[in-house]
């Protein structure tokens, strides 16, 4: 519901999959109405399904949501994103501070 409500206002979502295969990811995304891009690496397998991007960002459990502002600054890292968080992010001018629990950075997310 958050994606549908805020996508036209600038919200973008990118999924980073930790699924072992494409079929599992595609089925999950379809069954859970996830129309956004899902990233999955060919190197992921049943023996090592953790996405290299998730490893690089230190993601230890899923789901993990990174709220990134329009300048690419990480604003919050959370397990569940609320409509209120998204509205505040879209309404606020970009700053160089981060929300509690986020990894402080002034560099755009990669």
Largest sheet: 2 strands, parallel
What is the overall shape? globular
Distance between the termini: 26 Å
Q: pLDDT average, as an integer?
A: 81
Q: H/E order of the elements? A: HEHEHEEH
Percentage of residues in strands: 5-15%
The total of helices stands at 4
What does this 3D model show about the protein?
With 110 residues, this protein is of the alpha+beta class. Helix content is 26%, strand content 14%. It has four helices and four strands. It has a two-stranded parallel sheet with strand order 1-2. It has a two-stranded antiparallel sheet with strand order 3-4. A hairpin with a 5-residue loop joins β3 (65-68) and β4 (74-78). The longest helix has 10 residues, at 22-31. The chain is globular and about 45 Å long. The model is unreliable at 103-108 (pLDDT under 50).
Short description, anyone?
The chain is α+β, with helices and mostly antiparallel strands.
